[in-house]
Amino acid sequence: MKRALLFVLMCLPAVAVRSPAAEPVPQAQEFRETPNPFQILGHQWSDYPPPQAAYNLDFLRTADRETASMSLKEAVFVGLKNNPGIEVDRLEPLRAAEQTMIERSIFDPSLNLEFNKNYTVDVHGTNASVGTGFFPPVQTDQNRNYNMFMRKLLVTGAQLEMSFLNNVFIGSLQNQVLRPQYHPRVGFSLSQPLLRDFGWGLTKIFVHIGENREEVSSLGYQAKLAQLIQKITETYWGVVFARENLTVQRKGVEAAEALLKGAEARVRTGVLAPVAVTEAQAEKARREELVIVAENDFDVARKTLRLTLNLNPDNLFIPRQIEPNDTPSVEPVPVDRIASLESALTRRPEILSAGLAVQNQNLQTRYAENQLLPRLDFKAGAGLTGLAGELRQSCPAPPCSNPFTGNYSRSLDRLGSGDFYNYSVGVVLQIPLSNAQARSKYSQARIELEQAQARRRDLVSQITLEVEKSLGDVDSGFKRVQTTRRARELAQENLRGQERRFEVGLVTQKDVIDFQSKLLDARGAELRAVTDYNNSIARLKLAEGSLLESYNVEVEGPKKESDPWWARF
Fold it and tell me: Structure pTM?
């Protein structure tokens, strides 16, 4: 028993299912650890990853053969923890969150650093005169550039660029007085859409779509959890039914043995004919067959439950069998049609996902609508320039002078003075003559919006029908429990009456056998009715969207991350 308890505690959910014993939910940060640059470079030259080792099957030989006693809630928690399909769905919201981060990254600024050196030796003509001299036949030029650019998309849709350019030029031309020449420049440029692609409401559309997809992924995970809980519940009650049915069939064999012994005694005393023994033996053999079938059904049911829970071979304690210790309820469940429908239409993950799908398609339609506009962009730019250099030693016409002599620091001083500047202002208008692509995309978006709305309406109809059917199943299921219970009680009374009549010779042994069979059938029908009733309760909670709540299961999606400060403008 202690080991069984240990097994249950080890298997309690520790992932995205919050319960009193649950561990923290993993977040996207756990998957954001990246290899260092040296590892990345190494992977570029490495061979394919080595083949995965074969799955370790030692647990098949070392697994514990004890039986674990487990309640329904414990079975649900174990199944939620170990099911690999649920693990896939659990990670989907994290994947969707990363996609949203990709959409947000369009507002991230980018920094570009550039260095280049150009050296040119070129043939130059000798006929063009400059003053008293001539261009040399061979011209050499040397350029060094140290540039920095900062680019960012603003929430208004504008593209902003800031630059800091540093050029060092050394030429052989006779008229270049400053050698080397330092020419720093600083400036900015802005391109702001005024029609198409304008406004923070438009630039963040795909971020909102990504956030909705995160929620859809989380809702899909909740739906899978609820479906798995319902499956575990039915499998659990299936084991209980098979176990109780086996007990009923074994009692039938015991009754047949008692009847056979009584027949043998009466044949010896001459009260009954010898055929009575043969008749009792045949009935005993028939019921022994039913026991064999019931034993197999019980074994299959327990294996099905074990596979549904998907017990982790890595656990220290792996029971070969699971013994349910809960009994199915036979108490009436209050039903309220309006409350059930309201719960289903406001809480079902499928309904909420369909609503988010409609919302996303509305956003897509809004974006496509904006793309119908012509492009009108406002453009502006401004900059400052500095200049300095060393006066070359040889001049074509001495004495040489230049007001911009100095070192690089002096060129920065002149840049900061603001004496040398430039600016530009303008607009660019682009009008598509047919705009066929934009109009087709807009029409396509509207069609997809209608499809999303139609799917939601169809889903509402389906869920309404599902709730109505579940309510009917619960109501009829409880009535079946009452009816089959009464039928079993009457069958017991009839059998006792027949046995008393048989003792005094008023009925035959065949009559007793028939009434024993009717009692066995009545007990089996009652067990089936009770099982179906409990399954119908789980299906009703599933239809209402309250199944997770009934097990105190709370799903936490990825934590919302605040935008960095640079993404707010």
Answer: 0.80
